[in-house]
Amino acid sequence: MSFFSNPVFSDWFESEGILLAEQGILLPGGKQKRPDRIILRENESIIVDFKTGEEQERYGIQVRDYMVLVQKLTQKPVKGYLCYLETGKIETVHA
To answer: pTM for the whole thing?
Structure first.
């Protein structure tokens, strides 16, 4: 399966918006969160985290944390996704 044949996946690479890859989000106290991909669009933001190996519940929790942070920063609706590179599965993460 080609990831780019999946419209959700190809949208992360081929559409409008500001792309931030591996961009750190500074938290109070100096810690950082670093989603793999943040796409900032006029009416929404998209968070994508790429994973290898087995699906784990903590990955969804991690993406939800990113979504909350980005929503606070942008004041726009946020969509979140996990993309498992080995299996080709794309999972929508709900806030």
So the answer is: 0.87
